[in-house]
Amino acid sequence: MTKLAICPGSFDPVTFGHLDIIERASKVFDHVIVAVFHNEGKTPLFNTNERMALLKESTAHLNNVSIDSHGGLLMDYAREKSACAVVRGLRAVSDFEYELQITSMNRKLNKDVETFFIMSNNKYSFLSSSMVKEVAKYDANVSDLVPTCVEKALKAKFNRG
To answer: Where is the Cytidyltransferase-like domain positioned along the sequence (predicted)?
Structure first.
């Protein structure tokens, strides 16, 4: 039986921190679906199709990773895909408190799906998509924070490319 995991997020945009988690998950699970979800609390810079395209390009080297999107509940999506796990990255203690609440609710919604937390690589522990967008808006160098395709897309969004 294939061990399928879902790595959900808004990925607006994908960063090297995200890719670190995705790559490490791809070594543990037979297949990883990176699923772009809409977060009602955020106004995205990139639309869903743009985020998916950036993820596809950034994960092209990973044969057991696919990209998808979903607009509903993660646990409904996990059931639909027959996933056995959800993979989430943790950067700091504050992430853990938030993720604990979400994991508890997810377990209530679907007890058959386990959540696995992967600690962020220390060099990405400060990194967030929001921070990348903020510094890119002011034309700061983000080449060590995001893949080249994302850097180009950010420049284009902020009319600097």
So the answer is: 6-134
Is 70 part of the annotated catalytic residue set?
no
Q: Is 51 annotated as belonging to a binding site?
A: no
Q: Going from the N-terminus, what domains does the chain have, and what CATH number goes with each? A: 4-157 (3.40.50.620)
Q: Which of 42, 123, 137, 160 is catalytic?
A: 42
Q: Does residue 88 have a known ligand-binding role?
A: yes
What integer best gives the mean pLDDT of the chain? 94
Dihedral angle sign, alpha carbons of residues 1, 58, 56, 121: positive
- Count the helices and strands in the chain (H runs, E runs): 6, 5
What average pLDDT does range 105-120 have in this prediction? 95
Other CB atoms within 10 A of residue 17 CB? 22
Q: How confident is the model at residue 38 (pLDDT cuts 50, 70, 90)?
A: confident
Global confidence as pTM: 0.94
